[in-house]
Every structure is written in structure tokens, then in C-alpha cells.
Amino acid sequence: MQNQAKGYIEGGQSDSLLELFHRAKSGDSEALDQFFALIKARVSSFGKRVCGNLEDAYDMLQETLLSMFKSLPKLDFKDPKALNVWLYRVAVNACLMMRRKGKFEPEHELSLDEFIPGGQDDGKTLEIPDWSNIPEERLLENEIKEAVNRATQALPANYRKVLVLRDMEGLSTKDVAKVLGISEHNVKIRLHRARLALRRELEGYFLAHRQGLDQRIELKRASIPQESKSACRDILQKLSEYLDGQLRPKLCQRIERHLQDCAPCVAFVNTLRKTIELCRSYAADEKMTIPPEEKEKLRAALEACRQAILQDRTSP
Predict the structure, then answer these.
(1) Residue 130 forms beta bridges with which residues?
(2) Number of Cα atoms under 13 Å in the Cβ half of residue 139
(3) pTM for the full model?
(4) pLDDT for 122-171, tens place per residue?
(5) In sequence order, what DSSP letters do the residues of 77-95 get, joined into one string?
(6) 14 CB contacts (<8 Å, ≥6 apart)?
(7) Separation in Å, CA 192 to CA 10, 41, 112, 281
(8) Contact 220, 133 (CB under 8 A)
(9) Using CA atoms, how far apart are residues 279 and 289, in angstroms rounded to an integer?
(10) pLDDT tens digits, 37-50
(11) Mean pLDDT score of the chain
């Protein structure tokens, strides 16, 4: 019996997830193995990024796979997006259940004021380090990848989930809203503040490791009058939507006019863009290795579930 569940854990094929879903639902056992292997890969990476703690990520993976297994006969998806949204929603719900058991940190809100560079006094010099030109070979180093991971884990959970779903898992704003059960407007707010928090953490990392990078970190200085600081704040509020191409042309033009005359804001835009790029590039490399004992627990749970379903189908 154990071998029948093995394929759900060990790896996957490149077939379309939706195609595998329909084949598995029709009784194709090979497709069922491949389907759950792909689900395992997707959910495990998501769980590691969101949970941080590997034990919690294993729990999330098991709960998600079991929920999918039990629900398979009743589910019906017409397009891959609907399947994707359902899958991540189940994973997020598993995360919430673990938080109710006290496994996660208390929530706190990120304020936009935390990320406004410079002071509030008239004429104070505004200084923004621009580390966006650090050589690509340095950015690929494991130490910097770990810095991104640590900064992601430092985010409050509600912000971390949005960042992971949007910038690492690649879901659209609309689909993230469906997964989390919040408005698209709130997705944009949380995403932007999460990106700003991540950018600040990475800035601290790069400034602390300036040796060998000095020639690539330029300090952009400008004396900013109070009225211009208000414009800088307005720009800051909209930067993520600007970089994601979600703003109206007139507002984009206003931002670009401001950037022509504000070197610190240009540095801020450059480094926020680089932060987003790092999130997206590192996400592709992130994998969770499941130890043998956890694989065994998961196989046993899936096999027990499979047997229960078969027994239910054959019962008079």
C-alpha cells in the first residue's frame, strides 16, 4: 500500500496541472501521482516562505495535500487560475489554523511613515544610498539570498503572505485578493508596504557589507524644502503601482517629472525596483527538502485518506 502513495511525494512531471487534475479525477493513477507531486512542490515552497519554520511548513504541506485529496472527487475547475486560487486558499487556511494554535507571531501593522526617507525639518539634507548597480555576480551569492529570506521572514504575516503570493509565486493582484479574501485595494497597500520594508532591510545589509561594493553604492544627496518633501511622500505612496504599470498615464507623467529633479527619489525608485527583481529571481531557486521521516508521515496520511475514500465509494 505504501508504494501507491510514494509518487505523491517524490517529484513531478511537466504536464499541465489542470490536465493532470482532470485525468486524476477520472481515475488515472499515474496522473494522480504526478498531480500531487506538482502540488507538493508548489505548496512546499510557499509554506517555507510564509512559515519560515520548517516544522510549520511540513504541517501546512500535509494539511493542504490531505484537503486536496479529500476534496478531489467534488472539485471541478475550468481554468488553471481557478485551480491555483483554490490551492493557495487551502494553504493559507492551513496557515491560519496553525496561527490559532499559537505557532505564529502576533500581528502588527506597517505604517507608511516608517519608510519615508529623511527628516521632517525644512531644508534637511536627504540622503539615499543607491545600491541598484551592485554587480550581478554578487547578487547571485547565497549570502545575499539569505538576506532576502531573512528580510521576508521579518515581515508581519499578513504582509509576508501578500509579498510571497504576488512577487514570489507570481499571482496577479486579483488572484491574491481571492486567495486571501481581501480587496484588491488592500492587496496593493500591503504589497507596497511589504516591498518598502524589504527594501529597507536590504539597504541595511548592503551598507553593512560595503567593503568591495563602495564603487557600486552611490549616496544621492539633496537639500529638500518642505513643499518638495510632500511631493516625495506622494511619490512614495504610489511607487509599487508605478513600477507594476498600474497607474494612469497622467499620474505616471507627474511621477516622472518629479524624478527628473529629485536624485534621492531616483535612488529610492532604483533600489525598490531591484528589491522586487531580487524577490522574483530568488523565488525560482527556492526549494524545500523534505526529510525522510516527514515524507513517511505524509505518505502514510495520504494512503490512509485514499483507503477511506475507496471504502466510502464501495460502501452500499
Answers:
(1) 218
(2) 18
(3) 0.82
(4) 455 667 888 888 776 766 677 888 888 889 988 998 999 999 999 999 99
(5) -SSHHHHHHHHHHHHHHHH
(6) none
(7) 36, 27, 9, 18
(8) no
(9) 20
(10) 888 878 888 888 88
(11) 78
